[in-house]
Specification:
The complex is a heterodimer of chains A (116) and B (111). Chain A has 116 residues and is mainly β. Chain A contains no helices and 11 strands. In chain B, strands 2, 4, 5, 9, 10 and 11 form a 6-stranded mixed beta sheet that branches. Chain B has a 5-stranded antiparallel beta sheet with strand order 1-3-8-7-6, with no helix packed on it. Classes of the chains: A mainly beta (116), B mainly beta (111). The interface between A and B is medium-sized, with 26 and 24 residues.
């Protein structure tokens, strides 16, 4: 499967624990985006990364949330000291260089995070 | 004004009907446009890109009107499997930071 791979598909954490969500972009893609979606709501942009760089993190909460996309390996979205309000579906997408024009984003299956 | 707005929906139509969705965007310099569909509890999937000349893919036709800053999606001969939420997506500057999703329009095709 050469598509965007996210894992785990489902993640259960207790309040105060850490959650790590992983995303491997589609082969050949070096641009990664993270979104959050609450039930019955739309996608909310969180962060846009290229390899080793955060390009735009304007949608990410200032505290407890961080993201990285290292030179080797998947992109990681990390949530520290999780709270009930963090329960959501987290989607990762990747694309070719958007400067090239008309480059859609391709999504992974998402990680459903549940906080007990 | 929101950057990307869509018909609020939901649309409930019988099988075989033709249904059209509209989407407006605020940034006249926007460069790229797409329609995605999202099934309940699934990831968004690219339905089609929208080109200036308009484009058609089977029962689906997308149109772009740059002067009026709107995009449309027409579905002909709708099927039960077309039931989903349809997302209008605008890339406002082709630099990746401004890939904006609309709130979506929910479609239910009824038997």
């Amino acid at each position: 499967n050469a598509g965007v791979m996210q894992n785990p598909r489902h993640l259960v954490r207790r309040r105060g624990q850490e959650a790590r969500l992983r995303c491997s972009p589609m082969k050949g893609h070096s641009h990664v985006y993270w979104y959050r979606q609450l039930p019955e709501e739309g996608l909310k942009f969180m962060v846009y990364l290229q390899k080793e760089n955060i390009i735009d993190e304007s949608g990410m909460p200032k505290e407890r949330f961080s993201a990285e996309f290292p030179k080797e390996g998947p992109s990681i979205l990390r949530i520290q000291q999780v709270v009930r309000g963090d329960s959501a579906a987290y989607f990762c997408a990747s694309s070719l260089n958007p400067v090239a024009g008309n480059q859609p984003q391709h999504f992974g299956d998402g990680t459903r995070l549940s906080i007990l | 004004r929101k950057e990307v707005e869509q018909d609020p929906g939901p649309f409930n139509v019988p099988e075989g009907a033709t249904v059209a969705f509209n989407c407006t965007y605020s940034n006249s310099a926007s460069q790229s446009f797409f329609w995605y569909r999202q099934d309940c509890r699934k990831e968004p999937k690219l339905l089609m890109s929208v080109y200036s000349s308009g484009n058609e893919d089977g029962r689906f036709t997308a149109q772009l009107n740059r002067a009026s800053q709107y995009i449309s999606l027409l579905i002909r001969d709708s099927k039960l499997s077309d039931s989903a939420t349809y997302l209008c997506v605008v890339n406002m500057d082709n630099y990746g930071q401004n890939f904006v999703f609309g709130p979506g329009t929910r479609l239910s095709v009824l038997p």
